[in-house]
Amino acid sequence: MTRPRVIGIDFGTSTTSIAFSMDRGDGSRETKVVNLTEKSPLLETTIAKRDGKFVFGDEAKRITRSSLKAQLTAWDRDGGDEPFVFDYNDGTVDGLDAVTAFLEEALRKARQSLKDEKFGNKDDRFYICCPASWGPRARKLLFKAAENAGINLRTPANMIDE
Asked: Residue 65 has what pLDDT?
């Protein structure tokens, strides 16, 4: 019996990466790191909007210097009741939408790199790393964004402190 593929997403302060482990068919497992850019497994955890569309990574970094994760961490520490609003050079956008779009893009890049449209399907088991210092608000937002992006974490226990 083939065991499900296990996918880990490291939602990092400056970069995000994805690795996975899959059954080789002989009882052993193979682990691979996915290239999320042409030359690297690391995707800058930066997002911006240009002409009404989200842009990510290096392209976003040319527009803004503000890290998505840094703003999310600051919002979480604030402890208020207001929703997370992501602020970039040309305006603001709903924070949940921004995090969801970023995770969708990371998954799209992984599928493209692996030439596997089924990567990250409902049968795969996901884990996502987040800062140990994050409180319940940021964790809840990241969990919801993952769900919205089609990443089935199944339970908040699949969010691992880094």
From this structure: 67
Task: Give the predicted TM-score (pTM) of the model.
Answer: 0.88
**Which residues lie below 8 Å from residue 9, measured CB to CB, with a gap of 6+?**
16, 17, 18, 103, 106, 126, 127, 128, 129, 151
Comparison of pLDDT for 62 and 109, the residue scoring more: 109
CATH among 3.40.50.720, 3.30.420.40, 3.40.50.300, 3.40.47.40 for 6-161:
3.30.420.40
Q: Which two tokens stand for residue 93?
A: 């956008």
Report domain extents, the chain.
6-161
The tokens 């994760």 sit on which residue? Answer: 69
pLDDT digits (tens, 9 = 90+) for 38-67: 889 999 888 888 888 888 888 888 877 666
**Residue 16 tokens, joined:** 């995000």
Q: Is 119 exposed, middle or buried (0-12, 13-18, 19+ CB in 10 A)?
A: buried
Longest alpha-carbon distance in the chain: 53
DSSP state of 99: H
d(CA 81, CA 155): 24
